[in-house]
Amino acid sequence: MSDYTIVKESPLGGAEHEFDGVTVSEVVDQSLVMIAMPNGKAEEIEAAMSKSCGLSVPAMGQSTQSADGSITLWRLQKNQVLAYYAYESDDAEANIAERFNAPSAYYTDQSDTWAMIRVSGERSRDILERICPIDLDPSVFTLGSVSRTIMEHIGTIIYRDGDDSYVLLTMRSFGRSMLHAIEVSVENVL
Amino acid sequence: MIINHPLLGPRDSEEFVYLGSADLINRPTNWESEEAAEDFYQYLYIRENIAGDNRELWYHEQGDQSWLVVTRCTLTHEIKSVELAQDVSRAQGRSK
To answer: CB of A73 within 8 A of CB of A81?
Structure first.
């Protein structure tokens, strides 16, 4: 039998496209871990993650940063937060559990289930407003805002990680469709 | 149509799925009693056809996956209030 070697590949193969005023690129260096907070344990978990990483549980649709700026927490649902942070090994779940030191939370590594695409540049909002139903006005969708919505019938998480920079997350299997939707929007706008 | 989600703010109705009357929360619990068949028949099939404010269940499928109780005027489609179904259910003494 032949010897197979399995090669790790990102959902979009590291796609990167430069346009006039917009860059569309796959985000490949971030991990995403879901932290579920069971009923009645939220305060205990928040106290533990505050002690270990200087993190607080963000308000709905907002994010918070750890004391050293290395971990971003997103809040999209009442009883869970998502940790979005630069980490490329395969053990993000154990890694974040150890760093948080909050044993009553439940951790789930979701890094490989999402395709992450960054749309950045001065015209990024012009591209996104064609496909995104939520209000992206800089004063409404402020820096660090995060939301889950649909774009082109695809369930998408959108996170503003810079003044003119947005990260879109879709299920891995929809990654190419999302990339296509963004590229079509770029063609229509530019 | 915009639904003003209690946690997430105004959202396009495209993100939601409509289920039906909010009466569906009140599932009978007396399944062993004599009246159970009649109660379940009423629960499943009998609906008021309201011309005015109707309380209905909507599911935020493409959002935070919450169930909402939306009060919508069937004459004007005006949405008058939006509550989390969980809160409504608990306020009625149910456990979930």
So the answer is: yes
